[in-house]
């Protein structure tokens, strides 16, 4: 049996096993391959948060659910840590039904680290159905769109909401997004109408879609996938989940590139025989 | 009359919302805000409708013992158990130590993340079995994929210091140009469809399917 036919008959479970090992071993052992170097897009995100004056209020849209937790959660947590470290107040909203518990989690983790009080320094207004209409309605009135926070406390009794009527009082819009509704809709409904500065953290597969908005200045920074989250963690000075995951991702990418080469090598005899016919 | 009235309502609502988007005058804005609040309420009810539909379709298939019916039993049981647990816990269902939180953290989260993680395995397998370089276009795609896959992770700069810059150029110039073209085309299509609905040319939303 030639090496080509052996390759051709390779059981795909060997591929699955190798991918599993390449991902799990770096995560468990913590071995380190290469340092994470922040890109201009991640620096743009970081600088936009740095420009927000202390004591200002930002809207943090956590539009994802556990399906994309590996990519969105680390950037969500890093963004909240960065905002809280600068004493910026956070109003969190979610347009994915599965999103609010994840927003609660990042707000509580970072809130404890930076000694922030719920409803005084941050609030989670929770999920609201309606997609773009919710975004547009927030431009008219945030308290009318979200009359109570996630636990049912009316917004007029929430200190962090005091004086916040619409996007006129919002210094920055931070969108952590897995798709629709998300970053694109926030740009279309809010940035283009109310000119609120905006940054976004998105899944790697959807990141190319937002490059035109980044280049046009409608987005001031963009984190794409786990790599973007890792770059941002390095900038914030708190390497965490995403930074640890980058070595596993590096090895998985190399393996996939190798698989493309190997697959084409295995197909060589087949191709040459077809050529002879 | 059955066709004209819905058309007129669509036309009036469409035009009013279109004007409201661009005109912030209070005379327009008040009605515009009201319509948006109605939409939010109506969309919330569609969740109930959607779930009733899922239950109706799946229960029917279970009764008929159609293909893969045991999976449908799991789906229906999942919906009913989660709802029962959520309702039984009342307004406390959001607290950390509730049954609803347990289902979210230990079942829903784990299963959703697993589905997403499977991509890594299937992409590797597909790369081996399906990504064949047979044409010049496929070669270009393969080269771009190599550069991006390696240039986008920290190990890329160890392989060659220029790799991340080349990957960035690919994303910011050729990719961005194509994406911008697609976006513009899609935007024009959405505008055209919107105008067709407002003007009553596109009527597929009606009960007669636009006939």
What is the topological layout?
The complex is a heterodimer of chains A (about 280) and B (about 210).
Chain A: H1 3-8, H2 12-29, H3 40-51, E1 57-63, H4 69-85, E2 89-94, H5 100-113, E3 122-127, H6 132-140, H7 142-145, E4 172-177, H8 183-194, E5 198-202, H9 211-215, E6 221-224, H10 225-236, H11 241-266, H12 268-276
Parallel strand pairs in A: 1-2, 1-4, 2-3, 4-5, 5-6
Helix pairs in contact in A: 2-11, 3-10, 4-5, 4-10, 6-8, 10-11
Chain B: H1 4-22, H2 26-63, H3 69-88, H4 99-129, H5 136-151, H6 155-159, H7 163-198
Helix pairs in contact in B: 1-2, 2-3, 5-7
What does this structure look like?
The complex is a heterodimer of chains A (about 280) and B (about 210). With about 280 residues, chain A is α/β, with parallel strands linked by helices. In chain A, about 50% of the residues lie in helices and about 10% in strands. Chain A has a six-stranded parallel β-sheet with strand order 3-2-1-4-5-6, sandwiched between helices. In chain A, helix 6 packs parallel to helix 8. The model of chain A has no long low-confidence stretch (mean pLDDT about 95). Chain B has seven helices and no strands. The chains are: A alpha/beta (about 280), B mainly alpha (about 210). The interface between A and B is large, with 69 and 59 residues.
Salient structural properties:
heterodimer, A: 277 residues, alpha/beta, six-stranded parallel β-sheet, 12 helices, 52% helix, elongated, B: 211 residues, mainly alpha
Instruction: Indicate the proportion of strand residues of chain A.
Output: 5-15%
Overall, the morphology of chain A is elongated
Total of helices of chain A = 12
Count of DSSP strands of chain B: 0
Structural class of chain B: mainly alpha
Give unreliable regions of chain A as ranges: none
Termini separation of chain A comes to 23 Å
Q: What is the alpha-carbon Rg of chain A in Å?
A: 22 Å
Please count the helical segments of chain B. Answer: 7
Amount of helix of chain A: 40-55%
* Helix-strand topology string of chain B: HHHHHHH
Strands across the major sheet of chain A, in which order? 3-2-1-4-5-6
Give the SSE order of chain A as H and E letters.
HHHEHEHEHHEHEHEHHH
Name the beta content range of chain B: under 5%
User: Could you list the spans of chain B in which at least 5 consecutive residues all have pLDDT below 50?
Assistant: none
Largest sheet of chain A: 6 strands, parallel
Question: Nearest-angstrom radius of gyration of chain B?
Answer: 26 Å
Number-wise, the strands of chain A total 6
Measured by residues with Cβ under 8 Å of the partner chain's Cβ, the largest interface is: A-B, 69 and 59 residues
């Amino acid at each position: 049996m030639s090496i080509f036919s052996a390759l051709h008959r390779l059981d795909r479970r060997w591929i699955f096993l190798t991918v599993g090992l390449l991902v799990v071993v770096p995560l468990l052992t913590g071995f380190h391959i290469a340092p994470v170097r922040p890109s201009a897009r991640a620096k743009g995100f970081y600088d936009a948060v740095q420009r927000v004056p202390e004591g200002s209020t930002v809207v943090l849209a956590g539009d994802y659910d556990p399906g994309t937790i590996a990519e969105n959660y680390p950037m969500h947590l890093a963004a909240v840590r960065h905002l809280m470290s600068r004493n910026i107040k956070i109003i969190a909203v979610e347009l994915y039904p599965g999103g609010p518990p994840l927003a609660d989690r990042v707000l509580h983790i970072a809130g404890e680290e930076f000694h922030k009080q719920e409803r005084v320094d941050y609030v989670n207004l929770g999920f609201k159905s309606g997609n773009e209409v919710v975004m547009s309605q927030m431009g008219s009135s945030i308290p009318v769109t979200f009359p109570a926070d996630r636990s049912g406390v009316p917004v007029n009794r929430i200190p962090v909401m005091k004086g916040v009527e619409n996007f006129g009082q919002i210094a920055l819009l931070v969108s952590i997004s897995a798709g629709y509704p998300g970053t694109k809709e926030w740009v279309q409904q809010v940035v283009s109408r109310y000119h609120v500065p905006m940054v976004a953290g998105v899944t790697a597969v959807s990141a190319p879609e937002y490059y035109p908005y980044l280049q046009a200045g409608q987005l001031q920074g963009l984190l794409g996938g786990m790599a973007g989250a890792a770059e941002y963690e390095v900038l914030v000075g708190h390497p965490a989940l995403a930074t640890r995951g980058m070595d596993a991702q590096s090895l998985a990418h190399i393996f996939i590139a190798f698989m493309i080469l190997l697959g084409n090598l295995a197909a060589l005899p087949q191709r040459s025989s077809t050529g002879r016919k | 009359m059955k066709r004209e009235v819905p058309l007129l309502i669509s036309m009036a609502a469409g035009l009013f919302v279109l004007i409201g988007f661009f005109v912030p005058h209070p005379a327009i804005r008040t009605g515009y805000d009201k319509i948006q609040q109605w939409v939010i309420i109506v969309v919330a009810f569609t969740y109930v409708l959607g779930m009733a539909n899922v239950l109706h379709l799946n229960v029917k298939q279970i009764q008929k013992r159609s293909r893969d019916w045991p999976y449908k039993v799991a789906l229906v049981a999942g919906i009913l158990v989660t709802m029962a647990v959520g309702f039984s816990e009342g307004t406390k269902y959001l607290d950390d130590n509730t049954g609803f939180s347990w289902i979210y953290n230990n079942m829903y989260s784990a299963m959703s993340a697993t589905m997403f993680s499977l991509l890594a395995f299937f992409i590797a397998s597909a790369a081996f079995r399906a990504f064949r370089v047979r044409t010049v276009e496929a070669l270009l795609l393969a080269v771009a994929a190599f550069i991006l896959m390696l240039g986008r992770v920290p190990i890329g700069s160890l392989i060659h210091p220029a790799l991340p810059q080349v990957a960035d150029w690919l994303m910011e110039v050729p990719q961005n140009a194509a994406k911008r073209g697609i976006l513009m085309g899609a935007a024009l299509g959405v505008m055209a469809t919107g105008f067709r609905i407002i003007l009553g040319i596109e009527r597929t939303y009606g009960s007669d399917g636009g006939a």
